[in-house]
Amino acid sequence: MQNITILGATGSIGVSTLDVIARHPDKYRVHALTAHRQVEALAAQCERFRPDVAVVGTEEGADALRGLLREKGLDTQVACGEKALCDAASGPGCDTVMAAIVGAAGLPPTLAAARAGKKVLLANKEALVMSGQLFMDAVAESNAVLLPIDSEHNAIFQCLPQGYGRDPAEHGIARILLTASGGPFLNRDVATLAEVTPEEAVAHPKWVMGRKISVDSATMMNKGLEVIEAHWLFGAPAEQIEVVIHPQSIIHSMVSYVDGSVLAQLGNPDMRTPIAHALAYPERIASGVAQISLTKMGQLAFFEPNFDRFPCLKLAYQALSAGGTAPTILNAANEVAVDAFLCGKIGFRMIDQLIDKVLNRLPSGAAGSIEAVLEQDRRARDAAAVLIS
Ligand code: NAD
Ligand code: MG
Q: Which residues bind NADPH (predicted)?
């Protein structure tokens, strides 16, 4: 029996994770569930999955949750704040942590899970983008098991040889081919992108996801963050990570080898597949996802991405090449910009312009400690906020 903590249980990934877990009550038990503000949704999840612990963002939220749980006659322990998140992710009550908080807020508990040597199922790509080397060092030092949930990275993981040790050359790997759907604006006239509304930006053609990652998919910053994520997970330099636009989202990514072989992972676009893969690894369990029908799915297309349409992708490659805290700055500026766009404070094209300006204004430093990374994250957020106002 695996005891699971789900960080971000009320989000898109959290709900899909609970859907898979509910199919296998003999294998998985929920230790802790966390949410930021969605107290009622969390209370309903507690009623169904009976966790030991539930964590929310604020004291008021915790009081409200305690009241709801009392009405339901549940004895789930309720806590709030960052330390409680870290305890739920690193304490002796859990073996496996699904890291599915969105954004930089997920770094402290995800890192706590890694330091405690847990099995870490990583959806929260921002945590790894911010703290790359430090996070991977923590995993290595504690012997944590790190399994990617991002569908592309999960696909790549499945296409790599067993025992892969983050050295592409040692295993005859030529390139990592990261597929991208291209998002909702792949074919829209570039001249009209400035007028895009938040509702248009979050309407992804293939995936149902949280609002932040949906906007990231529309700008293709999501793919940029994934290039950086692939660099840290698989030890490949930027030049060996190629983005390929594949609008059908059937091939979730590929690995090409020096002998000319290309291995791909295919499936319907449903996050329950990578979630089930990582939960059960190295075994396989049912996920609830239907099999693809090769004869019915029609043609698969592949294109090169256009940096004029998707400048965020270029900014991410540049930040990865610059190294140090440049990816931390990129991520922080992007989070502030996306939030401002979703609140109607800035236009869609201002997202990439803002990130570019913040990257130019703030010198990237050494990412030598988590404190230095968090300080750089704060500075980048401040710089972005000043530019917006
Ligand atoms: P979401 O917005 O649907 O859910 C986010 C979850 O995090 C919620 O439970 C929310 O309560 C919690 N949360 C938000 N802010 C918080 C804070 N400050 N402190 C603590 N908890 C907080 O997001 P999502 O789409 O489920 O994405 C989660 C993560 O997984 C992101 O990093 C995203 O990039 C990654 N991811 C998502 C998908 C997908 O299909 N949704 C695919 C690949 C990767
Ligand atoms: Mg992805």
A: 10-13, 37, 124, 126, 210
Q: Which token pair is 9?
A: 């249980």
Residue 148: exposure state from Cβ atoms within 10 A (0-12, 13-18, ≥19) = buried
**217 annotated as belonging to a binding site for a ligand:** yes
Ligand 1 pocket, residue 86 CB under 6 Å: no
Domain boundaries, the chain: 2-148, 163-268+291-308, 323-389
Q: Decide: 153 in ligand 1 pocket, CB within 6 A.
A: no
Do 84 and 55 meet the contact criterion of CB atoms below 8 Å apart?
A: yes
Is 10 known as a binding-site position? yes
State pLDDT tens for residues 288-331.
999 999 999 899 999 999 999 999 999 999 999 999 999 999 99
Q: What is the ipTM of this complex?
A: 0.99
**Domain 2-148 fold:** Rossmann fold (3.40.50)
Q: Is 204 annotated as a binding residue?
A: yes
Find the ligand nearest to 181 CA: 2
What residue owns the CA closest to ligand 1's atom 36? 123
Per the confidence metrics, is the pTM higher than 0.80? yes
